[in-house]
Recover the amino acids of this structure.
């Protein structure tokens, strides 16, 4: 199917709508940006909307408990504790099965449904999902069209794609497939699957996509600093950005970018965003939620995983990581946190979060 075919096969081309206000979105990242870190990062501020890690759809209609396990915010109006809306992301390659599951998911009241056309994982691509679909724009169109028809008209349907699989030669074609299939918004990670997460990100190619489609486009990829955000916006032409590893590394990045967008200057010698002393109570709260919600064998690893990212931004995180690197006993980690972030809450005292959480 050629580019012109999408325009005639999908909904009629509409005039460009007024540009929405610039937004900062939190990226979906399997094994990293789950509901725990979504909760903590949105408490910091600067994030307008989240997208969940993907829910894999294969050949069956999933029970509701699968959706709520991955996106527990569905129990609380599809919002984090800080009130930030969360869209649930689906991944798969069968338009009919995706549509059926999207219909069931819509009944749970998500803030929107997102479709994954960008995952670079080999196990996903081997089964025809994620970025592998970027070699099949006809299937991309069929998936978006089927999902759009399956959910209420007022429920947003968005998509996230990379520039391509092995190369970016079909990037615009795939973006048109998504737009003409009925998506309301498109996030573009400015690398191909083959380029994985290696710098640089090719933001200028997002500008080509943005010119071709008539829906809002959000730029994503290799945004680690306020200066990166500025250069990305200039190169891509996008007002809105999606942050992933950059905001995990610097939880105040969204706040800092928004301050720069508004022309607010930080005092001399002060880094915008959040300081290490301000982050410590949230690190302790992160550990509390991990202990409440995750299996014991996963708990210490999750804290170390986040500290591993944080040490790129905070020298104090490097010290913390080295002190905790060999610890797996939760009691020893509790003692360490008590020393740096204040006494922990007593055993059995609930976390200050949504009602779907169990006690610490």
């Amino acid at each position: 199917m050629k580019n012109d075919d999408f325009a005639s096969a999908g909904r009629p081309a509409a005039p460009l709508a007024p540009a929405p206000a610039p937004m900062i979105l939190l990226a979906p990242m399997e094994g990293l940006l789950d509901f725990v870190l979504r909760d903590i990062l949105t408490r910091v501020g600067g994030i307008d909307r989240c997208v969940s890690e993907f829910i894999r759809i294969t050949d069956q209609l999933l029970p509701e408990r699968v959706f709520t396990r991955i996106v527990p915010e569905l129990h609380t109006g599809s919002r984090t504790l800080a009130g930030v809306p969360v869209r649930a992301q689906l991944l798969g390659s069968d338009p009919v099965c995706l549509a059926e599951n999207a219909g069931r998911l819509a009944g749970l009241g998500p803030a929107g449904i997102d479709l994954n056309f960008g995952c670079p994982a080999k196990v996903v691509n081997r089964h025809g999902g994620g970025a592998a679909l970027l070699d099949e724009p006809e299937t991309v169109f069929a998936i978006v069209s089927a999902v759009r028809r399956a959910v209420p008209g007022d429920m947003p349907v968005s998509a996230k794609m990379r520039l391509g699989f092995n190369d970016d030669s079909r990037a615009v074609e795939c973006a048109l497939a998504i737009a003409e299939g009925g998506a309301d918004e498109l996030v573009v990670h400015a690398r191909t699957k083959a380029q994985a997460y290696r710098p640089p990100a090719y933001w200028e190619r997002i500008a080509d996509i943005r010119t071709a489609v008539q829906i809002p486009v959000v730029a994503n990829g290799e945004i680690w600093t306020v200066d990166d955000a500025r250069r990305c916006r200039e190169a891509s032409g996008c007002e809105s950005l999606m942050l992933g590893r950059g905001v995990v590394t610097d939880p105040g990045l969204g706040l800092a970018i928004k301050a720069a967008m508004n022309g607010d200057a930080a005092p001399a010698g002060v880094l915008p965003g959040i300081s290490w002393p301000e982050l410590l109570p949230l690190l302790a709260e992160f550990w509390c939620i991990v202990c409440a919600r995750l299996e014991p064998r996963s708990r210490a690893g999750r804290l170390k995983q986040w500290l591993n990212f944080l040490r790129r931004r905070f020298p104090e995180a490097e010290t913390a990581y080295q002190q905790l690197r060999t610890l797996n006993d939760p009691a020893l980690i509790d003692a360490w946190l008590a020393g740096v972030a204040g006494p922990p809450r007593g055993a059995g005292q609930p976390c200050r979060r949504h009602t779907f959480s169990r006690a610490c």
